[in-house]
Amino acid sequence: MRNIKRVIEEHITRNVKTYFILIIIFLLGLIIGLIVVNNSSTEQEKEITSYINNFVTELKDGSKLDYFKLLKSSFSNNLFLVIILWFMSSTVIGIPIVYGMIGYKGFCMGYTISSVVLSLGTGKGIAFVLSSMLIHNIILIPCMLAVAVSGINLYKSIIKDRRKENIKIEIIRHTVFCLIMLAMMAVRSLVETYISSNLLISIVNYL
Q1: Is the dihedral of CA 192, 195, 115, 72 positive or negative?
Q2: pTM for this prediction
Q3: Are 120 and 128 in contact (CB under 8 A)?
Q4: How does pLDDT run across 186-202, given as a tens digit for each residue?
């Protein structure tokens, strides 16, 4: 455990500037997502509110979740995210897209949070968000940032040394790292499916 902790600390220390930039981009996306919902038209607000309220009503009425379908969807989304980040970071023109994906992920999260709060009110909305989003995203966000950092490091390494041997080694290293993060995201999918969803069902009864 100490060795793992030391490796993680060294990784973060070596890449602290890159992590800082990515976190800022993620937070900007999050803020924009919050602002977009708060400035949406009355018709859009009604559509958002109707969707959220219908979802809550279905859960209150005892609508059963399809855990296999939820798990499959969650893991598929994680797999797609890792593959895109891996592929884009392996190309010269892909790095701006990596930054864009981090910002977009923040935007989606901010949009979702703001939509729920708009529909259910501040107190109930926060309770909904904490139960349905907090736990598994604590795993997702660091893994997503780590994959992006690894991809940016791959790009920098290839730019510094264009020898085929170096490129091959760096791509293999990046790929292995991405697979480790994907395994962590698989754990995230299990948490989302079997913990967050059941926690949400318990909380919904009090909304």
Answers
A1: positive
A2: 0.86
A3: yes
A4: 999 999 888 888 888 77
